[in-house]
Amino acid sequence: MAGSRGGTVSEATLRRLELATGGVAGAGVAEMSARLPWFARLTADQRAGVLMVTQTGAANFVTWLRDPDATPRLTAEAFRSAPPDLARRMTLRQTVELVRIATEVFEERIPALGADRAERAMLVTAVLRFGREVAFAAATVYASAAESRGAWDARLEALVVDAVVRADRDSEGALLSRASALGWDPKARALALVGDPPPQDDPTRPPGSDPLHAVRRAAYRAGVSVLLGAHGSHLVMIMSLAEARDDEAADGGPDDEARGTDLTRGESKAALALADAFGPGPVVAGPVVAGLLDAHHSAVRALAGHRAVAAWPGAPRPVSADDLLPERVLAGDASAVEQLIRDVARPLREAGGSLVETVESYLDHAGVLEACARSLFVHPNTVRYRLRRVADLTGAHAADARGSRLLHMAIALDRLRTTGASPESTTRR
């Protein structure tokens, strides 16, 4: 006699069950083939794998009747016997469908082997309980696989972000391959955001979940793909944008790629939503670049801006790294010196028309238009016209506090360079 959860089953019945397991498993697989259209698309080896798992499950059912306490081990063994290719080919939903059909076939055929009505009732209950345990075992197997895949994806993601920050040009093919494995669109433009990660004790995060759960959830809601990685104590996010336009894709040099393009309204809203997912503190956005291979330019500027943003307590969130050029210069960022001279000072100098002289006079007179005009011996409208040209050329407004600081610093750095002094050495002191 053998113990079960609802009574006893005779040894003779257990023997009949052992002899019938092959036929019951075969009937279950035949029913799967008849009821599931996708089952026929499996290869012969994969269908044989399903039969083997079903036979193992049937045999384990008999063993479970002898020792019900062995349930967790026996149900797990059934899935461990599956070929690896079968586990990769089938989804959790498909596995649940197979378990349901197998349980129905077991419930139909196995109780008929009982010696009397009492045994048949016990076998019906046993089949249902064992099927439930098998379903839970299947869910556990897939959950473990998902956790392993999640851990692997996290490591792969960290490698991609690290390669972007380091500008690892020797492994561009590997970078794109890894990013594609993570679902990244190689044609998408990219933007880097740098800030502090969410706090570990975030009450909105589900217990035991990824610390960056809120960031990924915000990206999903915004409809964008992101790559996340740590850089020291900071969080670096590479955000995908709309597919590059034809005129942008035609830009050739690294300078063009580094300058990037403006965000559309929708992309700006997405960047704002993702900035809210960071932890407390400033969030700095680099420029938009043509693709992942150029994302280094955006990430480096964003990191440089984040190092310098403390000098601007009132900075918006997120703040553009290019809006932090004066602070980056003060923090010793040589690339910010080059960018200020190239994008601000040089256009003013090459445009002529006394634009540099007008800006300096306007700033020297604390923005008093009439005083500036008198010092230049011109009409105030002439000063207004020149300042509008300055704004058109550089994007900086001399009447604005931030714009005046940027213009003053750019002109000063350009003058230091043209007179033989080195702005880079000045910023390193």
Structure write-up:
- The protein has 429 residues and is α+β, with helices and mostly antiparallel strands.
- It has three domains: 2-144, Globin-like; 167-321, Alpha-Beta Plaits; 334-428, Arc Repressor Mutant, subunit A (Orthogonal Bundle), CATH 1.10.10.2840.
- 63% of the residues lie in helices and 7% in strands.
- The chain has 19 helices and seven strands.
- The strands form two sheets. Strands 4-5-3-6-7 form a five-stranded mixed β-sheet, sandwiched between helices. A two-stranded antiparallel ribbon has the order 1-2.
- A hairpin with a 2-residue loop joins strand 4 and strand 5 (234-243).
- The protein is rod-shaped, with a radius of gyration of 34 Å.
- The model is unreliable at 1-6, 244-260 and 425-429 (pLDDT under 50).
Could you give a quick summary of the protein structure above?
The chain has 429 residues and is α+β, with helices and mostly antiparallel strands. The protein has 19 helices and seven strands.
| pLDDT averaged over residues | 79
Identify the strand order in the major beta sheet: 4-5-3-6-7
Bin the helical content: 55-70%
Biggest β-sheet strands, sense, barrel: 5 strands, mixed
Catalogue the unreliable spans: 1-6, 244-260, 425-429
Total count of strands: 7
- Spatial extent as radius of gyration: 34 Å
CATH top level label of the largest domain: Alpha Beta
Give the H and E element order.
EEHHHHHHHEHEEHHHEHEHHHHHHH
**CATH architecture label of the largest domain:** 2-Layer Sandwich
Shape: rod-shaped
Structural class: alpha+beta
| Termini gap | 90 Å
Beta-strand fraction estimate? 5-15%
Query: How many individual domains?
Result: 3
Question: Which topology of the largest domain does CATH recognise?
Answer: Alpha-Beta Plaits
